Amino acid sequence: MDPARLIPAAEAIPSPWGWLEALLILTFALHILFMNLAVGSAMLAFFGRLSGKRNDLAHELGHRAPTFLALTINFGVAPLLFVQVVYGQFLYTSSVLMAGWWLSAIGAVIIGYYGLYAHDAKFDAIPGLSRLALAISLAFLLYTGFVLANNMTLMLRPEAWAAYLDNPRGSLLNLADATLWPRYLHAIVAAPAVAGLYAALLGEKKRHPDWVQHGLAWFTRGSMLQVLIGGWLLLSLPRPVLLGFMGRDLLATGALGLGVLLGLAAIWAGLRKQVMPATVLTVLTVGVMSVTRGQVRTLTLAPYFTPASLPVANELTPLAMFVVALAAGLAAIAYMLKVYAKSAPKTAGRG
Questions:
Q1: Structure pTM?
Q2: Topology adopted by domain 12-340
Q3: Which of 72, 245, 299, 349 gives 34 a disulfide partner, CB atoms 3.0 to 4.6 angstroms apart?
Q4: What is the pLDDT of residues 213-235, one digit of tens each?
Q5: Which long-range contacts (CB under 8 A, 24 or more apart) does 181-188 make?
Q6: Which residue ranges make up each domain of the chain?
């Protein structure tokens, strides 16, 4: 069966696709940063609770994790909508093929969210229940990431959609895709690395040198592991896509090269205990790697589709309203985070 016959017809988009793609990349970068903070903070808090050596840092990170998760969810809406607008015929199809798993992610996020709150609320009162709530929360959040990775890779593989003929129950997973596991791990391993960098920033602010050392250890080791996983992910790409990143596509090659250089510079800054430079370089790395992710999507779908072929309705008002709302929302969130940064659990006497 010709996979192209399985792809639904594309619909007109309200404005030129380049603007939508740029906003997709920007909002995804914001989403992934907050995801790393939310899941990574929960991971560091969990390992801290298990070891019992850094309960003060575990309490601090556990206190902030629910807020980070709320921001993750809110910033995840926009890139998902932009993907639906530009690549809807692919994403809607893959979502239907794995509908059972896809819908279950909603409940998993809710459970994970409440688990983070329960961990913080019962930290001192019922420590055992608090640790259990955190473990359950982490399990469901990691499950959600796995479901997302399945859908985001399945949408790029129309040739795999014919499996629906043998499994029409909406329970397909993209387990045969060589990129699934490295892509999933690339997102998950980044979480404790970024959260470790955040812990180091907190340590500098609150004058906890042990937090700085501990956080930078998580950041540098996690980032080094990311280099290996990133290489695995690159080599697992289909050959035409891999060649695009090896020089055939200037944007893809340039973005990948710049992202690698920024990532290595961030690791170097972390090893030299330069927390703020490492933070800036990490944020830039996430932004550039978001461009790389977009290029993976574009190059993988190139045999079937190019966004430039989409008909444009030239309805620019919705786009302008979104840009204004995004700018106002970012300003409001920046102010709220500034105020929130002043709040913290009382950690005196914790060991």
A1: 0.91
A2: Formate dehydrogenase/DMSO reductase fold (1.20.1630)
A3: 72
A4: 999 999 999 999 999 999 999 99
A5: 182/229, 182/232, 182/233, 182/236, 183/149, 183/152, 183/153, 183/233, 184/145, 184/146, 184/149, 185/229, 186/226, 186/229, 186/230, 186/233, 187/32, 187/35, 187/145, 187/149, 188/39, 188/142, 188/145
A6: 12-340
